Amino acid sequence: MTGLDPNPKSTSRRTFLKHSSAAIVGSSILPRTVFAQADALGDRELRIALIGCGGRGTGAAKQALSTPGKVKLVAMADAFRDRLDKCFSELGLHDVNVDVPEERKFVGFDAYEKAIACDVDLVILTTPPGFRPIHFEHAIAQGKHVFMEKPVAVDGPGIRRVIAAAEVAKEKNLKVGVGLQRHHSKKYLETVGRLQDGAIGDITLLRCYWNGGGVWEPRPRQPSMTEMEYQMRNWYYYNWLCGDHIVEQHIHNLDVCNWIMDGFPVSAQGQGGRQVRTGMEYGEIFDHHMVEYTYADGTKMLSQCRHIKGAWTSVNEHAHGTLGVANVGGGQIESTGGWKWRFTGDNPDAYQVEHNDLFAAIRKDEPYNEAEWGAKSTMTAILGRMATYSGQVVSWDDALGSELALVPTAYAWDADPPSLPDADGRYPIPTPGMTQSV
Ligand SMILES: NC(=O)c1ccc[n+]([C@@H]2O[C@H](COP(=O)([O-])OP(=O)(O)OC[C@H]3O[C@@H](n4cnc5c(N)ncnc54)[C@H](O)[C@@H]3O)[C@@H](O)[C@H]2O)c1
Questions:
Q1: Could you tell me if the CB of 412 is within 6 A of ligand 1?
Q2: Could you read off the pLDDT of 346-367 as tens digits, one per residue?
Q3: How remote is the CA of residue 147 from the centroid of ligand 1, in Å?
Q4: Mean pLDDT, rounded, for 50-58
């Protein structure tokens, strides 16, 4: 599978920027026009559009506006006017560099196209992940630099679209940042760097967790709402929008394990279900998943994610090696011989650093493309969901090659979302042993 290999040593996150730099800048066969599509901005004002004006979109816009140099937010898009207005007032209080008059505020399913059509250099994509492949593809087609949040898709076809658009971005010399901010955390960079340099010998086992009490409670159905609006307002609980919490949250920890391994799993098997979050208002997602992943060299990664209040909580990654152990999120390494290392020193806010790094690359015209890695780490989480929903061993190749698309056939307020409630208002819940998820 050219370009979709789960173990692309030559495009590892650690070495990715270095390699892509050499590949693009050093190539004598690429025509000059390839470079003409995006130029170094230097000190020029960088104009941005925000697409998806919720909690993270508001935060990402603040971070973009706080990067060194002149930055202005000039266009905003959201599915809902109330969400856009709330974000606009919060950003207006935060920063004077918000210049979004009424004619550059866009609402609805096609709002992203209108915002991207404004005279902008970069777009921030922070909608629920079900829309990411469409929005990313369009932004790249229009020649825009992109910051997009994780996850970057919710199914195999979406991942393939993002990987293809990432290639186009490289050809057009467009920079892409993905919100896997641990890659920009000094603590993680130092800890993972030491593990890759052999601090605990060969890695024999990885464990990772996103065990917590869950996210926001479902918003009540109003009589005026169509089914499409109801699900959009409650996007977390519907897979075509969210991908389930293993994809939406646990991706961060799975991604760190991939980073340590410098590659992606070749298969997964697992189990999960709905133990406490069983009401119909909780849509169709599970409240717990446990997955055993296998990497190409046979190394196992055990993953747990849970949304159950009152149970043990942990959001972290651990590595075991032939010469010691590491608490990765804690920035601690301990060898079997008794040697100990602990990360000390400043650990600047990685949400801000990831924006500083991306914007600096745009200004200096340095290669920068986190999209393929972000897509493959998202794929790792989707692979886990496919394993827990089906109860089968699922291979990376089958998962990535899957034609099972979760997205709706039409995007409109009166269109049917892909998952509909039965006469009692209950949504179909995946059943291991019966559900086909690939
Ligand atoms: N990196 C991180 O640590 C981190 C943290 C939080 C959220 N996130 C990610 O950010 C994304 C958004 O999460 P959030 O917590 O901000 O959710 P949110 O619900 O607060 O915001 C999402 C916004 O997108 C809007 N939207 C939905 N569909 C749209 C469409 N088609 N076009 C335009 N706007 C649309 C919604 O109306 C809403 O305002 C998710 O992918 C999430 O995983 C990442």
A1: no
A2: 999 999 999 999 999 999 999 9
A3: 13
A4: 98
200 and 329 together in one domain: yes
- For residue 195, how far is its CA from the centre of ligand 1 (angstroms)? 33
pTM above 0.85, yes or no: yes
Residue 276 — pLDDT band, cuts 50, 70, 90? very high
Separation between Cα atoms, residue 115 and residue 107, nearest integer Å:
10
Does ligand 1 come within 6 angstroms of the Cβ of 179? Answer: yes
Inter-residue contact 227 to 420 (CB < 8 Å):
yes
User: Which ligand 1 atom sits closest to the C-alpha of 131?
Assistant: 31
Residues 103 and 24 in one domain: yes
What's the CA-to-centroid distance between 55 and ligand 1, angstroms?
A: 7
Taking CA 182 as the corner, what is the angle to CA 62 and CA 294, rounded to the nearest 5 degrees? Answer: 140
Q: Measured from the CB, is residue 354 less than 6 Å from ligand 1?
A: no
168 and 61 part of one domain: yes
For residues 154 and 204, membership in a common domain is answered with: no
Q: Is the per-residue pLDDT at 14 higher than 60?
A: no
CATH number at 176 reads: 3.40.50.720
Whether the pLDDT of residue 277 is over 60: the answer is: yes
Report if residue 410 sits inside a domain: no
**Same structural domain, 60 and 175:** yes
Contact 326, 200 (CB under 8 A): yes
User: CA nearest 122: which of 351, 376, 361, 350?
Assistant: 361
pLDDT band at 39 (very low <50, low <70, confident <90, very high): low
So what's the pLDDT on residue 353? 98
Reduced to 3 states, what is the DSSP secondary structure of residue 16?
Answer: helix
What is the total count of domains within the chain? 2
Pocket test for ligand 1, best of 105, 149, 378 (most atoms within 8 A of CB): 149
